[in-house]
Amino acid sequence: MSPKEHPTAVAFEEALRIILEKAVSGRETVEVSVVESLGYVLAEDIVSEIDMPGFDRAAMDGFAYRHADASLGDTFEVIGIVAAGEAPEIALGRNECVQIMTGAPVPFGADTVIKVEQTAPQGEEKSNAIQQVRILSNPSLGANIAFTGEDVSAGSRALDAGRMIRSQEVAILSALGRQKVRVYPGPRIAFAATGEELVEPGRELQLGQIYNSNAYCLWSQVLGAKGIPHSLGVIRDNREDLRQKIGEGLQHDILVLSGGVSMGQFDLVPEVLAELGVEIVFHRLRVKPGQPTLFGVRGKTLVFGLPGNPVATLYAFDQYVAPAIRLFRHHPQPRATPFQGELTRTVRTKPGFLYLVPCVTAWREGRYLLTPLKPHGSADIFSVSGADALALIPAEAGHVDQGQTVTFHRLFES
Ligand code: AMP
Ligand code: MG
User: From the CA of 317, how far away is ligand 1's center (Å)?
Assistant: First the structure.
């Protein structure tokens, strides 16, 4: 079906639902270093090869002793001192204790650690070493000792495949002695800007020409979303060039094009896509900016045709392409996280369209305030400079007044 026969424009939520339904999760996995795995999803169960802790370790600075020997007020002989990292070669006899530091192995014969604050040194201190201590409280048996395997035992599963790796997982993997880990890589994403008027930055502009900013914006968004970018360069508005470069782009997991999807005479992208066997799933949204956004599928390749206006391209990638990338990467939450915020200014819209309104957020007295920027139309990328969020102004509204609460998405969520 040609896009011009496609009268049904799709609502924002519906578009997302369709995209996430057609999107596929990547099957490949790669091994990366643990630090590089940040922000990727685990593609393997992590079974611990070691006990954690690997030995009975003191959880506090204090004195290790045998619980059965002690009554409140008893005095113990301090027969040695153990620091973290030391293997103690001491065995305790009756009424003997050792001074012990947090993280040090508890010596043979001791079963309890009393915190240093709950003891009093006795007798004379010789060469700074405490000779005797008196016990000022009576901790329970085993107090202040983290026992072998208490956190994780050897052979047990510490992390499940599918877990998003954040810094705490980096810490866990490293604590288990791992240096490498298997994750799901991002999709291979071919991208290009279309247009006769485009000139690469670094060259000189002639009348009627503009710098190609969309390709670089898309490139950065692909990188930010952990996709693997493949630049197809600039595509000119002729069938020949479109066919050739789109053909190459369709060999990737995702193809993102900017421009050429509107109603102009040279907006040939939908036609060429259809000719190359792409099923156009939707073309036209009830969303502004970005009304002519196109989404298609060929085999497992997803195709996004984003309107050329820089603001529309930026938002459309963020709102429609990024969730598909997250799904490909097995992200547990492919959709943008919804937040609520209070508008500091009234926003007027045309009923029938959901508006994506660029905002600057501030956290004040337990809630987000959303200050809408004043966009000068979707061609003006300067007008959205500094925006960190998009407010979703509902389709039926017509206007949403200052002080009203609306849903917003963070721009560039990863
Ligand atoms: P189009 O969707 O192809 O009709 O493009 C709409 C408008 O967006 C054009 O007139 C240009 O002003 C602008 N535009 C298109 N492509 C780019 C690009 N790659 N970089 C910057 N602006 C663009
Ligand atoms: Mg164009």
Answer: 15
From the centroid of its chain, how far is CA 152?
26
Distance (Å, whole) CA 235 – CA 269: 10
Question: Could you identify the atom of ligand 1 that is nearest to the CA of residue 312?
Answer: 8
**pLDDT level of residue 105 (50, 70, 90 thresholds):** very high
In sequence order, what are the beta bridge partners of 298? 301
Q: Which pLDDT does position 97 carry in this prediction?
A: 96
Distance of CA 378 from the midpoint of ligand 1 (Å): 10
Average model confidence (pLDDT) across the chain = 94
**Cα–Cα distance, 241 to 48 (Å, whole number):** 54
Residues pairing with 33 in the sheet: 180
Between CA 161 and CA 183 the distance in angstroms is: 9
Question: How far is it, in rounded angstroms, from Cα 237 to Cα 234?
Answer: 10
Please list the residues that pair with 282 across neighbouring strands: 295
| Local structure of 9: helix, strand or coil | coil
Kindly indicate the confidence band of residue 1, based on its pLDDT and cuts at 50, 70 and 90: very low
Q: State the DSSP H helix or E strand holding residue 80, giving kind and residue range, or none if neither.
A: strand 75-82
Per DSSP, what are the bridge partners of residue 346? Answer: none
User: Residues lining ligand 1, judged by CB closer than 6 Å?
Assistant: 193, 195, 198, 210, 212-215, 258-260, 262, 264, 267, 307-310, 379
User: Ligand 2 centre and the CA of 261: distance in Å?
Assistant: 8
169 φ/ψ angles, rounded to the nearest 5 degrees: -70, -35
How would you classify the pairing of strands 75-82 and 132-135?
antiparallel
Q: Report the sign of the C-alpha dihedral through residues 224, 222, 309, 342, in that order.
A: negative
Q: Which single residue is written with the structure tokens 């989404």?
A: 295
Please give the average per-residue pLDDT across 381-390, as a whole number.
94
Q: What is the 3-state secondary structure (H, E, C) of 322-350?
A: HHHHHHHCCCCCCCCCCEEEEECCCEECC
Q: Which of 166, 111, 191, 189 is nearest to 143 (CA)?
A: 111
Please tell me the distance from the alpha carbon of residue 366 to that of residue 9, in angstroms, as a whole number.
38
Smallest CA separation from ligand 1 atom 5, residue: 308
Ligand with smallest separation from the Cα of 216:
1
